[in-house]
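Record type: monomer structure entry
Structure origin: computed from sequence
Chain ID: A
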Amino acid sequence: MFEITRGYKQGRAVLFYDIINPIDNEKKEMVSKAAIVQMCNDGKISNAKIQMWEGKPIVRVQTKELPLVKVDESGNILGVAHQAVRNTASTVTHRAVTENVVDLSHKAKVVGKLNPKKAAKQDTSYGGYDYKNIVQHQELNRSVSYSGLVTISDLFDKIANEFGLQQKELYKAEIGKKVKLSRELSGINNTEIAAIQSSIATYLMNMAHDEVNKTYIKYLIL
């Protein structure tokens, strides 16, 4: 199953899309709208559906903040495109995907805990990625390879190894209290895999922060 990760806009229309199958790490760039419409109708796209308007198909992508870039007739990227959104009065407004840093500290999780509801403000360390450049973020995210990963345990090991954590097995045991590590990725839809992956990454970022902080205190001379 593929999911749409980026759109390419010429004028007012999105004519091409990037898609990825996160399980097989199969990526396709600048797939035509016509091909995407056919894939949606065949049930091969997980995060989009087709809506007809005046006899023409419209690709409705369900992913929030889908990156859109402007391209010229040769396919060269010109910059970040605007996205149209509807407000509660059903009127269309436009907003740009900016490169400003978004403060996510209020969404951070407590170090060592997975339940954000129990977070104490003084224990907050990291809440996720600051979207300084959403296009760059998507490119980095798409570089993740799922090749050889069979279970959630494999996914955890991959992320933990990249963090280079000292107590990986301890953290894995904590994650295992929340999710079934032996669950096979092939039986999980892409949206759920993305949510699990994000939760693991955020949790391990907190653990990495905690380990670094302890090392800092150890060598700090007061």
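Annotation 1: The helical segments are 33-41, 134-142, 152-163, 168-176, 190-219.
Annotation 2: The chain is about 30% helix and 25% strand.
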